[in-house]
Amino acid sequence: MQQIIEAAWINRDLLKDEKTTDTIHKLIEMLDKGEIRVAEPIGDAWKVNDWIKKAVILYFPIQKMKTIEIGIFEFYDKMKLKNNYESLGVRVVPNAVARYGSYLSKGVILMPSYVNIGAYVDSGTMIDTWATVGSCAQIGKDVHISGGVGIGGVLEPVQAAPVIIEDGCFIGSRCIIVEGVHVKKEAVLGANVVLTKSTKIIDITNAEPIEYRGFVPERSVVIPGSYTKKFPAGEYQVPCALIIGKRKESTDLKTSLNAALRDHDIVV
To answer: What domains sit in the chain, N to C, each tagged with a CATH number?
Structure first.
């Protein structure tokens, strides 16, 4: 299957070949069922399966636009929506939408939210109101993604890693996480934290700061911050993220964001 996808990626004329289109459709079905993933954990590291991402990209040109009617709602798109939520064991509140080709594990709860193709959402995770999970994003078990959170998607460049949120994380309201940022297990992000590949993530818990980019260490408690940067026109405050401590072992994994921040005398 990989060889067929790689060949079609180089030569788009092969998208007219039935064997190629059948392979693409099969791969999207496997993504939908969680049988394959765009990115997967291998020990402590993550492997990006860029050829599967290529299959997602190639799926668009072989699909035709059509009208989709669901009750009183009408959509016009190339891609159908997920269905059979009862058999999947997934709770979906109106008006939540998940596209076909995304995977939702048993026990997932979707409040009115959006999950795009290629995304993987593991068991026990809550996607709260008006949150979005972009293409190919990888969300772990028992994650709480609060209201209005934007988890960025990535299809191209194909070698780019997707956003990864590992098990047990708590992502506070209106956070934005994009450009393949990796949030390790049980981290807590306070409201309005914005993380891109270039965002400074500064651990300020010791005498000397430790700086990260694109990576939040395990069990970190993170809040929005700023630092002073010199420009030709003067000195200005530039956004960053501050690691103010670690989630305590005594803190239950389902604890509220406020409780986790209170451990460190912080109100956000």
So the answer is: 2-167 (2.160.10.10), 198-268 (no CATH)
